Automatic annotation (TrEMBL):
Name used for this protein in its record: FAD-binding oxidoreductase
Keywords: FAD, Flavoprotein, Oxidoreductase
PANTHER family in alphabetical order: D-2-HYDROXYGLUTARATE DEHYDROGENASE, MITOCHONDRIAL
UniProt organism field: Dyella koreensis
Cofactor: FAD
PROSITE patterns: FAD_PCMH
Domain of life: Bacteria
Domain FAD-binding PCMH-type: 41-220
Family: Belongs to the FAD-binding oxidoreductase/transferase type 4 family.
Matches recorded under Pfam families: FAD-oxidase_C, FAD_binding_4
InterPro entries membership: FAD-bd_oxidored_4_C, FAD-bd_PCMH, FAD-bd_PCMH-like_sf, FAD-bd_PCMH_sub1, FAD-bd_PCMH_sub2, FAD-linked_Oxase-like_C, FAD-oxidored/transferase_4, Oxid_FAD_bind_N
Amino acid sequence: MTATSLAHPVLADLAGRLPALRLLTEPSDLEHYGRDWTRRWMPAPLAVALPASVEEVQAIVCWANEHRIYVVPSGGRTGLSGGAVAANGELVLSLERMNRVLGFDAVDRTLTVQAGISLQAVHDAARAHGLIYPVDFAARGSCSIGGNIATNAGGIRVIRYGNTREWIAGLTVVAGNGERLDLNRGLIKNSSGYDLRQLMIGSEGTLGVVVEATLKLTEPPPASQVMLLALPDMAALMQVFALFRVKLNLQAFEFFTDVALKHVLAHGAQRAIDGEHSYYVVTEFDADEDAALAVFEHGAEQGWISDGVIAQSEAQAAALWRLREGITESLAPHRPYKNDISLRISALPVFLQEIQALLGREYPQAEVVWFGHIGDGNLHINVLKPEGLSDADFIAQCEHVTKLLADTLQRHGGSISAEHGIGLVKKAYLGSTRSEAEIALMRGVKQVFDPKGLLNPGKVF
């Protein structure tokens, strides 16, 4: 904390109340902690607080209420919707120091952790007890459990295990008035009124600050096979998914386009299938190699599969997965405009035809990169800015197309946000997914948990 910031009476009061609190005010720290992966807003927080306990979080929130200071809860800041952005003098409340495993219960098969722990650390802790926490995605090394909970994160194995909310047995939350809430307490069955734990999951830090979580663990799956498939067109993608879902016990079914492959190969991944193909799938399943090959051959005979390879080692499986998981990182230097959408799987074929035509018409000069979780109806659309187009004009064009996309999603009963939340980016399109009555109720819930409206202001609504 700088001498100048110590002279700020509000921050001086916070430092006086919590002498052990780490409080950052250097410009480089404000920039680092004040933004997420969107990189669209200039970070400008008041300061960054890094508490080490639930009690410190409570004290910070109570201080914020007294001084009417807005608070932005912060995890790994890997979000893509502006949900962790602090651009208007807010206090960033980073949970990164609260990153410990608090306990393991072998009977209940639960792991209790602080919210700032990384997903990778949770995986490692579960594995040390012979179990797994099955939620998984490429940002596992940098995202935090608190952030995963705040957005109900999904990832690459939703088709087998579901989203984050299926794996939360209990939560400790500091509400917007500073009150500590212990929600569900790890119970399997609990029909005693409203399940406020589930209300907190996906609330994007607008109702309370998740400080601790009790996570459900499960048995590791049986040995699995990983296969990379090359497909001729989008129609074949849905045919192959239907075939593999019936014949094999799928853990994951992830697709990407030839354009996505081009970028991930340029970023250092290794090509696994020769030739040019329009679509690719990385799929993981429980089945022996003979059964998998029989299904593959059937798909090839139908003309749905052009080529493929099955991993013969863990290293080769990891290399195949890198072709899918490395896409986001490979696109980051291009600062893509991202859409994260979802539909019922049954609605995908007709929707995909419509949206391909829409994107081709509206982005005649931009490169559009598709990939996503076809097995749970979640598609990621990344638009790369053409050279010579200003940032402002590019964003304006993309927002115009996103409005058209939201209208199309509404007609097909889809959602403008599958797993990254609404944040700042998607506020204008919330009405395409939620009715006016629902939004009014959501505002009412916000008022109850955060009476002064201090938590993550401007997000969602």
